[in-house]
Amino acid sequence: MGKIICLANQKGGVGKTTTAINLAASLATLEYKTLLVDTDPQANASSGVGIELTEVEDSIYSCMLEYLPDVEESDEEPVAAKDIILETEFPNLYLLPSNDDLAGAEVEIVDETGREFLMKKALEEVVDDFDFIILDCSPSLGLLTINSLTAADSVIIPVQCEYFALEGLAKLLNTIRLVQQGLNPNLEIEGILLTMYDRRLNLSNLVIEDVHKHFQHLVFETVVHRNTRLSEAPSFGMPVLAFDAKSKGAVNYMNLAKEILKKNEMP
Amino acid sequence: MGKIICLANQKGGVGKTTTAINLAASLATLEYKTLLVDTDPQANASSGVGIELTEVEDSIYSCMLEYLPDVEESDEEPVAAKDIILETEFPNLYLLPSNDDLAGAEVEIVDETGREFLMKKALEEVVDDFDFIILDCSPSLGLLTINSLTAADSVIIPVQCEYFALEGLAKLLNTIRLVQQGLNPNLEIEGILLTMYDRRLNLSNLVIEDVHKHFQHLVFETVVHRNTRLSEAPSFGMPVLAFDAKSKGAVNYMNLAKEILKKNEMP
Ligand SMILES: Nc1ncnc2c1ncn2[C@@H]1O[C@H](COP(=O)(O)OP(=O)(O)OP(=O)(O)O)[C@@H](O)[C@H]1O
Ligand SMILES: Nc1ncnc2c1ncn2[C@@H]1O[C@H](COP(=O)(O)OP(=O)(O)OP(=O)(O)O)[C@@H](O)[C@H]1O
Ligand SMILES: [Mg+2]
Ligand SMILES: [Mg+2]
Fold this sequence. Notes:
The structure is a homodimer of 267-residue chains.
Chain A: E1 3-7, H1 16-29, E2 34-38, H2 44-48, H3 60-65, H4 81-84, E3 86-87, E4 93-96, H5 101-109, H6 118-124, E5 132-136, H7 143-151, E6 154-160, H8 163-167, H9 169-181, E7 188-195, H10 202-215, H11 228-232, H12 240-243, H13 248-263
Parallel strand pairs in A: 1-5, 1-6, 2-4, 2-5, 6-7
Antiparallel strand pairs in A: 3-4
The complex binds adenosine-5'-triphosphate (ATP) (2 copies) and magnesium ion (MG) (2 copies).
């Protein structure tokens, strides 16, 4: 039974996609069969692992449609997740891609009963084929992110070492608590991950101090430093491990993978 | 008749809020009466100009409700924009704040007729009181951003000098084109603003080259450099001009204001 981990934060540009891609690639390198699911219509996770977006026909949304109560009436051909999972050039790393259909998803499912459980249902048929499933979310607390939080076993919260990123944390933790109380009682917080840390900046150090003060038991030991190789790698369509394995970014994300494995008592 | 300029980009963390706050403050310093409208539930623009979020009772959403066809039935007391505009500590700079109500707005107005025009109507009664109205948007192309694009005279597109930010540009320009064809034929592109430029980084230079190659007539001459004073200023609740007027960030945004004034033939 694979573990489903979701990356969520409504603040934009905090490193959700960078973490999803590079954590998934690190787990894959450690021989865990890993599925990266791109639930963001921007499709950054898909292009960041080298998938050509114009060739993607179906996304996770086509699989979710299959579980709508009145799907017989819709002329869209429902699709099983198994049938649209793509291999990447990276061993043990697979992708369930995103495409433009996702942009209209939230408005289309808003009146459906059981709308928060569609992604969970879509992933149920593949969860046993993988050791880890990593969900990348868009910068929002809308229905797609709620679907991801409902499908997940745990959530990683990337927090950029900046002031605005700190502000939104309380609201995100509140949304997670609501999901735990209603839609997904088993949802745990895997951890708060500090990203784009730059030790030369006073602000970076203040944010780290603040996060440790308020949430110390939730914060990962691993801190991801600001590292240009992390932002260059996606332009070559590859995780940083394939682009520059000796870079600080690659080392940070490999450490994060190992810290998560240790915490979950996996070899 | 004040000019309404909206900041839009569905990619997160590209500098929409930083541009909205600091452009508005620069225009205010040049003696133009300026209103900053925070349409993002994250309320970063509101806190970035020193407004205490817990004290905000009404947001732009309460004003939009006033224009719903069946507002008599709703028990929410509609509110006029004039009545909730706040002064900031910065001369000539006013704020229409955000609050949590905005988070539910898109789902609540999705079935209303004329739903895209609600913000335009709400701002019509104050547009003559200001020289400029600057709208900050959330990282999404949902109904609130569509409302902002429909209300605006022009749109500024901040593009971070990073690979993922470049990818989303075509989709955003397509959305703008759709708004111009249907909802707001007068909408112009004020310009594409390159942000967080770091001349030492190869990637930064590649992105600048690429944007100039494809969109040269749309790109502002002003480029906003990466500058820590810009990210420190919001933690003190002030625009960078008030925090450190000699910083590169303050100079960049003042230049942007002057470039926009010149383009619009204003003194
Ligand atoms: N540690 C890092 N060092 C340097 N650059 C980074 C780092 N992490 C992420 N980046 C870059 O910062 C930008 C924002 O990161 P990313 O796109 O992963 O954030 P996100 O939270 O997924 O954004 P969105 O909210 O739009 O989905 C990207 O251009 C990425 O390449
Ligand atoms: N030129 C710059 N130099 C350094 N830091 C910057 C610059 N512009 C913005 N920042 C910082 O980068 C982060 C992202 O910027 P900002 O929040 O303005 O982006 P945004 O597009 O409004 O994000 P969102 O998509 O979440 O609304 C913030 O922490 C901000 O302080
Ligand atoms: Mg992302
Ligand atoms: Mg913002």
